[in-house]
Design brief:
heterodimer; A: 405 residues; alpha/beta; Rossmann fold; 19 helices; globular; B: 2 domains; 16 helices
Amino acid sequence: MKGPRRVVLYSPGMVGLGHMRRNLLIAQALANGNMSAAILLLAEAREASAFAFPPGVDCLTLPALRKGIDGVCHSRHLDLPLADVVAVRAQAIAATLKAFQPDVWIVDHLPRGAVGELNGTLESLRARGKTRCVLGLRDILGHPDAVAQSWRAARCEGAIRRYYHAIWVYGDPAVYDPVREYALPPDLEARTRFTGYLDHRARLHHAEQNGFDPLPSLELPPGPLMVCVLGGGQDGGPLAEAFVQATLPPGAAGVVLTGPFMPWEHRRRVIELAGGNPRMRVLEFLREPALLLRKADRVVAMGGYNTIWEMLSFRVPALVVPRTGSSGEQHIRAQRLAALGMVHTLPPEEATPEAISRWLALDRPVANDPRQVIDFGGLENLPRFLEDVVSGRSGALAAVAGGIA
Amino acid sequence: MIGSPYSGDGPRIAVFTHDTFGLGHVRRCLRIIRRLAEDAPDAAILFITGSPAVQPLRDLPPTADLVKIPTLVRTGAKGSRPPHLPLAMDDVSRLRRSLVRKAVLGFRPHVFLVDNFPLGSREELRPTLEELHDKGGRAVLGLRDILDAPEVVRESWKRQGIYQVLATLYARVLVYGFPAILDVASAYGLSPNVAEKVRYCGYVTEAYRRTSPEAAFRSLGIEPPFLLVTGGGGGDAFPLLSAALDALPRIPDLPAVLVAGPLMGPADREVLRARAVEGNATLLDEVGDLPALMDAAEVVVAMGGYNVAAEIAAVRPRAILVPRTWRFGEHHVGEAAGVEWEQILRARAFERLGLVHVIPPSELSPERLAEAVATLRSRPRPAPSTEFVLGGIERAAAEILSLVPLPREASHVVS
């Protein structure tokens, strides 16, 4: 094969920034692998525009979709019926895959894409036989019942069986084993490999090169740093409000990162509540929150995949207040990690300013070092996994070679 | 509004800008897009660009969305090269051509606004324009006040068959300038048929909306009088900012505010920052409201890009322009480097109208700059003039919306 490996990463968007951060980190790992790679990310615009891209990586952005609380998709911005927006997206995706002819297409967590928009493209790729498809899954998709229901509705198993050469789980079965929890049938289990978690410290190198360090401009007082992060911020208002009202340990400073999607009236209240405290800062968005987290002494956070594994990559003691959404994903993640002794967790209704104050004042809030127990080798493993997929060593054989019991 | 919130009955407008070096094209398109969204709240607006300058997209109105196609242009300041795929230009070009076609035709716009390059890069828009034309969509070309030297434009348009494209595939040619700056029809040799499609809109700038000058400098912690030096996006602003720092000891009573611009490479930026700390100057990466700061400044020193010139036309500060004369990734990718006339011609036109003092870059020296600053300080600010027309945003949006067919009104008549 001449030229660099060609890889397309698809992130359906719809909610938050986590998918984008994850896929950028994966792109960075693949672009830095032994084989040079040309990597094209497919994502939604406002999330993609928030980030800087590593060398060798570019993006195509699609008109955005929005998932309502009823689970039904709509156009997010354009005043068009869903079918019209999906038509633009699906045609752009099809044109990209046809013209770019990637060696590998990595699809994030929805095997048929948002609203089934990948169906046509997957079918024609299958007919052409040049591109191998990989389904990338975060560790926990949701409560097994919820996952079973949505997979049935979207006919996911059939899609994986027909189109996908491999399933990569960006996690470690020591934390959560989706094969077992979601009862994947044996033929899908045989294609599944655990990459290990992604070590987010790798982001620092790129961030430092680009001079994104936000800390100097915050002019924080010296002393321990207490941070509260809320992912994209859509539903982070209550936790942010509790945090800014908490009592910081003596000499400590606090920083809240609300996220760009926090509703304006929530953000305003957070800013007002923080206003009286000269040791508290409220930020809307950082291109690279890793630069903040590496300096943090304590983090209070929700339980999204990205946030959690960022904090654990930096070994920052964390208090996790998971979202209580219908899928149960964050709750399960928080429970598992608390059981492993790696984080503390509080249900949202108990995350009062007082409870947060008490936790911030704890001497040694978390006992176990995640690196001792959990595989963080995802970024090193990914280039090898990619080569395995390209060369066809991705099925049961590879799963055995990868040491999965 | 529950269930299916969007009807899709409103105008559909697609906007395309080819990725060029600098932020000017994207900003201009964004201004027009925002105005379209205000004037037609039910419009769906799709912005398509390969520009890596995606940060301003946080300014997209809520009824607009973006298709960013892979970036083709590969020039840029050291350390701030745009992201791009490590593939042959032809491969990326083929991908873009096909993507634009699918995105535009899938969207089925009533109007397709194309910024500055009638066929995009490497003719990537030709199939899209032809098919759109067959389907009854209308294409509008938006041209900057000055593209380049007229003979360069004529030669390049002839070579690329642009005259034919303008005659057959475009319904309108909007000029974001004014005949006193350049009479486009005669300068570019347009046929009467194409000349009839031309509408002068005036400068596309929001400078007249500026905040108060006091708020602008107070928020930065500086006090007048001060010299303001700006290099636009900043990708090639280092020589100007460096010369300004050298000139400062000659004007000791005037501290300077230097705006590096978001595209300046980090290494250049650090060099300037260190020198600014030693000298009587403040270096800023970006400012939120440059026109307001211009209004507060004793003298403004700038290059000659479209945006800064439009802001100067609106604010009327005492201004010195040091226009760019070398090609810098602008225009068509792969075109040989050479003299670029756009900024020189614009600076000369502004000087003719009494708005600026021009220092050719070949004559730029600390002495010359200090001398020009001193001369300008002894004069009053240029008076507001009727020679210029601002309002480019409003006129462009109105022209675009006038091309949208009106089925809803027609159906009102029937019912």
